[in-house]
Amino acid sequence: MNAAVQPSGMDETVAYAPLPRPFKLWRGGELPSGVIAYETWGRLNAERSNAILLFTGLSPSSHAASTPLNREEGWWERMIGPGFALDTDRFFVMCVNSLGSCFGSTGPASIDPSTGRPWQIDFPEISVEDVARAGYEAARSLGIEQLHAVVGPSLGGMVVLAFAACVPGGARHLISISGSGAASAFAIALRSVQREAVMTDKAWQQGRYEPGHGPSGGMRIARKLGTITYRGAAEWRERFARGGLTPRGERAAREAASRYPAGFGPRFAVEGYLEAQAERFVRVFDPNCYLYLSRAMDCFDIASHGDPVGVFRRSGLTSALVIGVETDFLFAIDEQALAARQLEQAGIPTRFAPLPSIEGHDAFLVDLPRFDAEIRTFLTST
Amino acid sequence: MNAAVQPSGMDETVAYAPLPRPFKLWRGGELPSGVIAYETWGRLNAERSNAILLFTGLSPSSHAASTPLNREEGWWERMIGPGFALDTDRFFVMCVNSLGSCFGSTGPASIDPSTGRPWQIDFPEISVEDVARAGYEAARSLGIEQLHAVVGPSLGGMVVLAFAACVPGGARHLISISGSGAASAFAIALRSVQREAVMTDKAWQQGRYEPGHGPSGGMRIARKLGTITYRGAAEWRERFARGGLTPRGERAAREAASRYPAGFGPRFAVEGYLEAQAERFVRVFDPNCYLYLSRAMDCFDIASHGDPVGVFRRSGLTSALVIGVETDFLFAIDEQALAARQLEQAGIPTRFAPLPSIEGHDAFLVDLPRFDAEIRTFLTST
To answer: Which domains does chain B have, with CATH numbers?
Structure first.
C-alpha cells in the first residue's frame, strides 16, 4: 500500500529535457525549474522534420512502447515501431510524461528546490495548456521547432487541442483521440467525486502526507471509479455477467476482503477485477499528482483561448484527424464531433472517425486494429 | 454531519405492521421480531381487493405522497391521489419502507432486542426477496391476502419481480419500473465502489460507529456517485454545461470548500449540486442500512429461483407492465426488456414501455407525464 511514490530520481531508461527557467504557467505562477521525462523511437532526420510528439492519458508514463533500455511492454506497444501506425521507419516518435505527473517529469511529487522537500500542494496549479507547452519544450530541446504531428489520447486528446491553441505553427498535423475541447459536466462530476475520495481519506492530510504513506484507500476508490467509466456498460456485461470471483481477481479480492468484516468484501468477478486494477495504480501513482492532473482536465476549455474556430485557424495545422468512440460515455462522441467540426470550419482538412468499438473510453488501448487503420491511413496521407 | 441516524422510535405519521416472529430470511438467519413502517392513501374496500402495494427505491421512506398526518410532499406526490395514476378514488395505496431501511422499518439501525443496542452489522443479511415478503406481511396485517397490484421503481422494480417469485398468488398485476431481474456487472461495479467509500471511511469503524458519528465523508461520496449515475450524461450536459457555482449550490460548495486547502474545493455548478444532494442524504440515511440494501441489490437474481419463465408462470399474475428508460445506464433498458419478455413467455399479458425520457434512471421521479400515462392506462385496463 505504497500510495505515495517518492519520485525515483533519475531513471536511466528515460531521457530528461529541461524546461525554460522559469517556466511560466497558464493559470499564473511559475516553476523555477523543471524537467520533462521522455522516451523516443526511430531516428530524427537531418531536417528534424519527421518528429511525432505523443502525449498520454492521465496515468501512463512516457513508456509507450518497449525500448532497448526498457524491454517492458509499453501502453501503446503495437502502435509504435517499424511498420506500425506510428511507423519508426519514417518517423521519430517521442512520448512525454505529462508535466505534473510522477514518472520523471516535474510535478507535485518532485522536490521543490527552495525547500528540499516535495512540492506537494504548494506546486502551482497546472493546466492542460502547460502540459502541451512543456511537451513542446521537450521537443525543442532536441532542436525540433515544428512537429510533423502531435498525437494524444484521452487527456492527451485534450492536450493536442491545447497545443494547437498555445503553439501556433508548432505542428503540421494533429491527431486527437477520445479527447475533448472542454470537459463535460458529467465528466467533471465524476472526476470531482474521484478527487473527493482521495482528499477525504484522512491519510491525505490536506496534501501533506509522508511520501509512502499517502491516501491509498481514497486512491483505490478513485481508480476503481475511473476503471468503471473507462469502459462501456455493455462491455462490462459481456465480460463479467454476474460471475463469481475468478482466480485472477481472487488474490486481490482476498486482500480486499481482509479489510472488511465477514460478508462485506467482494463477491463478484467484476469486483476482483477492479481491485486488481486499483492495486496496481495505487502502487505507482502519487495522489497529489493525480489531483493536479484530474483538476486540469476539468478546467480545460478551448474556448478560453477565444472562439475555437479562430483559435484553430491560427494554429498553422495542415490537416487533422479526430477519433472518437461511440460507446465512450466519459468523453462523449459529440465532444470529438464538435472539435472536428471546429477544425474543419477553421479551414483545416479534418477527418472525423467515430469508431463503433465496444470498449468505451479505453478502446484506444484495446481495439488496436481500428485505431491502427485510421492513424496509419491519416499519416500516410501526410 | 449527522451521518448515522438513530431510528426515531415511533413516528406518529406512519403506521407499523409487525412481522411474523421469527421472520425467516431468504439467505439464512432470521429476525426474532420486526416491523414494517407504511403509509396509506384511499380506502380499502370491504372485499379488501383494491389494494396496491408500492415499494420504493433504495433511499426513500414510505412517504410517497402527503397525508393528513404528514403534509410534506412525498417522493411520488403527483402519482398518488384522487384522479392520479394510482387513483385513490378506486384504489387503496400502501407504500412500505423497505425492510433493512431506517425510516421506521426494522433494519441495521434498529435496536437488537437481545442486546438493547442497535444491530449494526450483526443484523442478518437481507435480500430483495426479504423486502418483498416483508412488504406482503404488512399488507396481510390489514387482512389483505391478494394485492390488486404490486408496484415499484428502481430497487422497488426488482422487489416486485422478487414478489412474483416468492409470493405466488399474492398479486394480480405487477408494475416494474426501471428495475431488473438481476443486477448487471456494471451496476455491481458502481455499487461496490459506493460501499467501499463508506467502509473505508475510518468513521465507519468496521460497522460499529456511535450513532450520530458515522462515516459521513464516505456516505457523501457514495451519494454523489449515486446521483451521477441516476441521471443521463446528456442531461448533465444540458443542465449544467460548464457553468460556475450557482447560488443554490454555493452554500453547500462553500461548506465543502472549507474542508479542503484553497484551490481544491468545488469550482463548477455541477459540484455544488452534488454537494447539496449528498448533504441531504447524509443527514438522514444510516450508513449500515445503506450497505445492506446496496448489497441486496447486487445479489438479486431472479434466476436463483429457477428458470424465470417458469417462476413467473407460477406467480398467479394476470397482467404486467414493465417500464424502462432508454437513457438509464444503471438499470439498462435491455434488463427491463428481458424481464418483460420472460413475463410474456410465461403467458402473462405484458406491456413493455421503453420511454425516451432524458433523465436516465431517475426519470420516474421527474418525467411524470410519461409514467403517469403508462401506469394510468395499464391500471384502467385491470
So the answer is: 15-184+301-380 (3.40.50.1820), 187-291 (1.10.1740.110)
Flag if A237 and B185 touch (Cβ within 8 Å): yes
Query: What count of Cα atoms within 13 Å lies in the side-chain half-sphere of residue B260?
Result: 22
User: Which one is predicted more confidently, B248 or B24?
Assistant: B24
Report d(CA B39, CA B28) in Å as an integer. 29
| Residues of chain A found within 8 Å of residue B274, distances taken between Cβ atoms | 189, 192-193
- β-pair partners for A54: A95, A151
What confidence tens digit (pLDDT) does each residue in A178-211 have? 999 999 999 999 999 999 999 999 999 999 999 8
Tell me how crowded residue B77 is: count the other CB atoms within 10 A of its CB. Answer: 16
**Exactly one of B127, B328, B357, B362 is catalytic; which is it?**
B328
What was the ipTM of the complex prediction?
Answer: 0.93
Rg (CA), chain A: 20
Query: pLDDT digit string (tens) for A267-310?
Result: 999 999 999 999 999 999 999 999 999 999 999 999 999 999 99
Encode pLDDT of B101-113 as tens digits. Answer: 999 999 999 999 9
Residue B21 contacts residue B32 (beta carbons within 8 Å): yes
Check if the beta carbon of residue A171 is closer than 8 Å to that of residue A149. Answer: yes
Cβ pair A188:B301 closer than 8 A = no
Which residues have a Cβ under 8 Å from the Cβ of B49 and sit 6 or more positions away? Answer: B146, B148
- Comparing alpha-carbon positions, the chain B residue that sits nearest to A292 is B264
- Cα separation, A319 vs A353, in Å, equals 14
Chain B: give the shortest CA distance to residue A215, in Å: 11
Task: Please tell me whether residue A96 adopts helix, strand or coil conformation.
Answer: strand
Residue among A159, A154, A166 at smallest CA distance from A53: A159
Nearest to A240 among B185, B267, B329 (CB): B185
